[in-house]
Amino acid sequence: MSARQIYRFRLAGGVVLATVALLVAGAFAVSVSFPNEGFADRIRLVAVSEARAEVAAGVQPPRLDIVRAETLRTLRQRPGDAAAWGRLAWIADREGRVSDALVALDRTYVVAPYGPDLTAWRLRFAYGRWAMLTPGLRRQATAELRVAIRDRPGVVEAAEREITDPAGRLAFVLTRRAATADQAK
Fold this sequence. Notes:
elongated
């Protein structure tokens, strides 16, 4: 084999490999971009379940049955997904199932105690339902708030504005003041 033939053979192999990679990437991109299309069911991706759950949660009124089904599908594939556990807490809260909401909220702390992607939502959710929280959940929410005060003050300010529960608002403000005083020492 001459050098020219080897070059052509390698070039052809590279083109074939690049084409296959492009087709596979395109299939994944389509399934994630259009999660409610039939094609997305053929490729089981967590991102598809996540996207479907978010779409169903975003409509008014939220389609809680679809959100639950897609969230459970996500958790079957990725049981350590704190956002999915948070969604289950939100669903249970919307349905008035307080104990289920608290179990799911606790699971978010088990999976990601200081998960930065979940901090803002979790602070609003926990302090917005402060009277219902167990002492253990209150300790976890307070610990997360103290970390957020130090590391993410913008998140803390935004969360504080959205807390409507008077007991939660008071606990939030008192924790914030105590944490700020501790930092000043």
